[in-house]
Amino acid sequence: MTRTSPSPASHALPPDAPGPHSRRLGLVSVIVTFGGLLFGYDTGVINGALEPLTADLGLTAFTEGVVVSILVFGAAFGAMIGGALSDRYGRRHNIIVLALVFMLGTVGCVLAPNWQILALFRFVLGLAVGGASATVPVYLAEIAPVERRGSIVTRNEVMIVSGQFAAFVINALIFNIWGESDGIWRLMLLVAVLPAIGLFIGMLRLPESPRWLVAQGRDDEALAVLSQVRTAERAQAEMAEVHRLAEEERAAKTAGAVDLGVRWVRLLILIGAGLGICQQFTGINSVMYYGTQLLGDAGFSGDSAIIANTLNGAFSVIGITVGLSVINKIKRRTMLLGGFALTTTFHLLVGLSALLMPDGSAKAWFILVFVVLFVFSMQATIGPLVWLILSEMFPLKIRSMAIGISIFVLWIANALVALGFPPVVKAMGIANTFLAFAAFGVLALAFIGKCVPETKDRSLEELEDDFRARYS
Amino acid sequence: MTVMTAVAEGREGDQALAAGIAEARLLGTDLVLVNLRLSALDHSGLPEDVTITLVERSGPGDRDPVDAVLDEIEARPGIDRLVIGIRRRSPVGKAFLGSVSQRLLLQSPVPVVAVKPPADRSP
């Protein structure tokens, strides 16, 4: 229990002057790179590896969906378990274990003799991907100085899509150098072991999160860590801030299952989960996981499809870079609705091109251009916005539970789209699949227009009053 | 001697708050409000003539509202009355989410005053 007291005014901290500690903090950026890259590489590598893999292991449309989506199902559980474990045993400990699980999962996939074993190790890999998504950004935010916190977390998002892009490029290179041998997909998957080793070694050299140590009542150790990554003067001054944030985080874990009985809490969590579903039912990850096959179906040859697919990765990186640079200049709702209007338009254009144009290279190129524009508009708006709105929309005391449920639903929606995409394309064709995505887009527009609150430039108190007025 | 009131969400919470203030006035005691809500309590309606201590529910240790109230009673030896609001619940709702008021009635170490919102006072 806490007694109500006026919230302590955040006093100005002495600036974080450069010094010997800066190099230690520089390592943090390296970890960002490997944590994000791994997440991206492991989710993206299947795109490009899937074609030779399907031939090698004799996959059907359904087992293809299983092999791809099981990683994402694993990630849904990994995010939940990983969050709990990192609260209990510490961020650093958790990331080191995750790096080992990444290696185990990767090696297991590479050596898999059949699709069942491959699926098993893809699930293991998914646990690591989810765990990393729940732990790495938290660790970074907790150890970075407040002035650099935003840019480090943003950089993590850029690194995730860069990891996917890297996977597409490396797959295209491997495919074009070693050609169409059956085992080529094993080499593609094996590359993912490199960033895992980087993460492991880097993390061994980094200290535990000071905020986590404070939450455990280990103030002396927290101060020792801060002294490693800040100037001595700054480390002392920052302890009060670390305590305040640790207390805030504790308060964020107040709500539990009983509180789902409260109408406004329940509705707010449903809106959060709905946002996750809307983001995933744009089908962004159908392109990220199946882009090469999609372009092959559109009319590209195997060689050129895997090369054309790197454009999806490139425009994903460009999109998120543009998006993050404008994200704080436009109202959240405006940007989100605009994003869905664009993605839905491009879905329609992909669908209509596939439906109406005669087969041939013109059709293939039209589809490529519209898919790439879809990816760009998605990553410039809906992609980063949904995460941002989720982090802003929940009142403090329900935040931990509400974000946990929303992210779990988001991962499950991601997995369901990934599972369903190959059989649906096989049954209905590209045209109808993308027209269906367009229909989901219209539903998403209606849902967001009606239910999603504006969170930009509004204090949590204002938001809370608004929710209570609307829903209780 | 002190009266404690557990303020839950909804009308039954408002009802408990009003009854708690009345009880404290009647007994001439202080009042401890335990805010079980997940948002701040509206301070504007609180009277001046009763000494009120506001206790917030906060952190994973208070995740269960019943534990939050019982721990607070234990931590304050002066409490000799607990005021709560109750309402009708569907059997399904009770099965899934349990009943906070039922558990408080059964587990409170001090006498409990249970008040109902007006609409629930059926014959």
TrEMBL record, chain B:
<dbReference type="InterPro" id="IPR006016">
    <property type="entry name" value="UspA"/>
</dbReference>
<dbReference type="Pfam" id="PF00582">
    <property type="entry name" value="Usp"/>
</dbReference>
<protein>
    <submittedName>
        <fullName>Universal stress protein</fullName>
    </submittedName>
</protein>
<dbReference type="InterPro" id="IPR006015">
    <property type="entry name" value="Universal_stress_UspA"/>
</dbReference>
<feature type="domain" description="UspA">
    <location>
        <begin position="65"/>
        <end position="116"/>
    </location>
</feature>
<comment type="similarity">
    <text>Belongs to the universal stress protein A family.</text>
</comment>
